Write a sequence for this structure.
């Protein structure tokens, strides 16, 4: 037994048995029909017998699923910054987070196509309560972030996860994806939670903080969707927050959000890999004696990269102008694009509710407001 057994993905020798256990599950059938619309069930059931590693599964199946998602629900994926990464190096991608499934799936497709090391990716265990989703997550090299634990257990869980991430990066030479915050950004403000960095630093031991964070090879990752496919699903939580109310998720809400993210229209998508953070840590440690202030400064450096390299789309500029009643950014979009965005908004929310409308527009406008601080 390993101390990582409760959170780790499958070992390669476990993959085929796990895959066969869900091969005929209705959700797997639906997934494969979506991925291979021109093939019958016999085709992929036969192919499953040849899958004996996570790499096999990702190369032959999941990468094809993601390509099909892009084909059917987007107008293309563009990238920048990845050509600066070493093909033999493992990196910790600290990422803006908008969509439960797609963020890490798109990154891994890019890494696969560019010959870079694919990631093991963090996913909240609250998202994989269904046995099928739990197995599928582990087949995709996801490791579990344990949510909702008592304080003492949460501390131990964070320590185990920190050690696991450190082992992946330094011993297995496996890249890792982790969101910059717990849960998805719902209001368009991308900000790194200090708690994420505290968790990572638990594995530092006696190493100085700057030396430890250098070993992680942190790459800030900016993920930009022209249309957020789950924008309307984020509204109830934002509205509850605006009224200082506790938000309680509906049964199967996370699952429905996952489906909407996969199938919903995204238009264009851009991923930018920032520069590997290194000397920044020395500067921070020399400037601040207090560990909390050091972590706060590191979070700010990650935020700066993510926001500065965030790709602004016409939808972002349109939302800013509509929110503020201006034409400040009218050079960045056409009247047709503005009309289409307005029509989409009217179809998704009740625009007579001024607070709801403001929240919806702010979700798209905030990246503009944040990025303008760097220009």
């Amino acid at each position: 037994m390993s101390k990582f057994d409760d959170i780790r993905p499958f070992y390669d020798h476990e993959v085929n048995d796990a895959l066969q256990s869900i091969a005929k599950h209705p959700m797997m059938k639906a997934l494969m029909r979506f991925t291979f619309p021109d093939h019958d069930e016999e085709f992929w059931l036969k192919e499953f017998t040849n899958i004996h590693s996570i790499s096999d599964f990702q190369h032959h199946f999941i990468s094809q699923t993601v390509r099909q998602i892009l084909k059917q629900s987007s107008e293309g994926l563009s990238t920048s910054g990845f050509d600066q990464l070493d093909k033999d190096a493992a990196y910790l991608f600290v990422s803006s987070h908008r969509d439960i499934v797609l963020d890490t799936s798109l990154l891994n497709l890019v890494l696969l196509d560019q010959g870079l090391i694919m990631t093991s990716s963090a996913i909240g265990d609250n998202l994989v309560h269904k046995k099928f989703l739990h197995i599928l997550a582990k087949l995709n090299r996801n490791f579990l972030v344990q949510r909702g634990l008592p304080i003492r257990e949460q501390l131990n869980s964070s320590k185990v996860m920190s050690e696991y991430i450190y082992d992946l990066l330094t011993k297995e030479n496996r890249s890792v994806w982790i969101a910059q915050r717990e849960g998805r950004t719902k209001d368009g403000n991308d900000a790194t939670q200090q708690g994420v960095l505290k968790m990572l630093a638990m594995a530092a031991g006696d190493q100085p903080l700057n030396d430890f964070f250098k070993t992680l090879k942190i790459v800030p990752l900016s993920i930009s969707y022209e249309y957020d496919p789950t924008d309307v699903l984020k509204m109830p939580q934002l509205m509850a927050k605006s009224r200082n109310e506790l938000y309680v998720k509906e049964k199967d809400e996370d699952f429905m959000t996952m489906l909407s993210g996969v199938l919903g229209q995204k238009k264009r998508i851009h991923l930018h890999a920032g520069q590997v953070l290194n000397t920044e840590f020395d500067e921070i440690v020399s400037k601040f004696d207090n560990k909390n202030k050091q972590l706060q400064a590191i979070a700010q450096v990650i935020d700066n990269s993510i926001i500065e390299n965030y790709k602004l789309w016409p939808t972002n500029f349109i939302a800013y102008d509509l929110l503020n009643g201006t034409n400040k950014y009218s050079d960045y979009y056409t009247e047709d694009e503005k009309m289409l965005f307005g029509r989409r908004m009217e179809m998704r929310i009740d625009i007579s509710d001024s607070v709801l409308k403001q929240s919806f527009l702010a979700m798209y406008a905030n990246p503009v407001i944040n990025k303008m601080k760097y220009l």
Q: What stands out?
A: The CA atoms of residues 209 and 303 lie 19 Å apart. The two ends are 52 Å apart (CA to CA). The longest strand covers residues 218-225. Residues 54-73 form the longest helix (20 residues).
